[in-house]
Specification:
This protein is α/β, with parallel strands linked by helices and about 300 residues long. Strand 5, helix 6 and strand 6 form a beta-alpha-beta unit. The protein is globular. It has 11 helices and 9 strands. The protein folds into 2 domains: about 140 residues, Rossmann fold; about 150 residues, Aspartate/ornithine carbamoyltransferase (Rossmann fold), CATH 3.40.50. Helix 5 packs across helix 6 and helix 5 packs across helix 11. The two termini are about 20 Å apart. The structure holds phosphoric acid mono(formamide)ester (CP). Phosphoric acid mono(formamide)ester binds next to helix 2.
Amino acid sequence: MSSSELSTKHILGIKYLTKEDINLIFETADNFKEVINRPIKKVPSLRDVTVANLFFENSTRTRISFELAEKRLSADVVNFSASSSSVKKGETLLDTVNNILSMKVDMVVMRHPAPGAHAFLARHIDANIINAGDGTHEHPTQALLDAFSIREQLGDLSGKKIAIFGDILHSRVAMSNIFCLQKLGAKVRVCGPPTLIPKHIPQLGVEVSYDVKDTLEWCDVANILRIQLERQDIKYIPTLREYSKYYGIDKKLLDSLDSEVIIMHPGPINRGVEISSDVADSKQSIILQQVENGVAVRMAVLFLLAAKRST
Ligand code: CP
């Protein structure tokens, strides 16, 4: 049984959400998924709300998904991209955001390379803040849409076995997924080269394996992550070719398993590195369903935070 409102006015990370918050977001997203499959996909829920999407890092899925979610809720939307802004002239994050908020903005969706940038802003501004990714820290709405997509396939996540493959060390998606899946009672294992698995990870109650086939045999769902070369200042793997040989997931490997595993990937995909095209495009893959669900889940998050503004 979930409550009728979120316990928080910001979505800074899954760490700060309760299991009841997550279930409320899922139940609300179920309703919005029905809405976005209607011929008229728009509802007036956020008609008097203005949302600013502030992206200080590149994005395709998250930025478009939030913008669509906001527009389908009838919010007024402004988009900001750091590469074409006065940040390039030396303006601080707080000055930038305060200037935007002085134009009567109610909610801020932000992606920023600095872990904790959102928590810093939450201490200084009144608007609701949604973390769309902060460095290697968290990407909460990605984890929510991932768990929502698993729930759609397998029902209750309690006791389900979810494996996260790849570059766990640099992945905010991995961190948010671990927190979210554990709150929902799933068992989580990470699998990748030892250099890309953080040393502290067993302390989170997560299993560690360096054996891809054994982990695929163990899990119900394989969430495959890319190697984040842009966050690596030293060499963690000899070459992408070698990574692909030992840790890449291809159809031959999947076909050798005793049971069928659900394949997920948050994107962007590096085809032929962590995942082969015949796996990414297979009937086991729910990668595009994840993207579709992202809009409904983000509509739910925006709607529930807007409801907190009037309480
Ligand atoms: N999954 C994800 O965050 O993708 P983008 O970087 O394209 O937003």
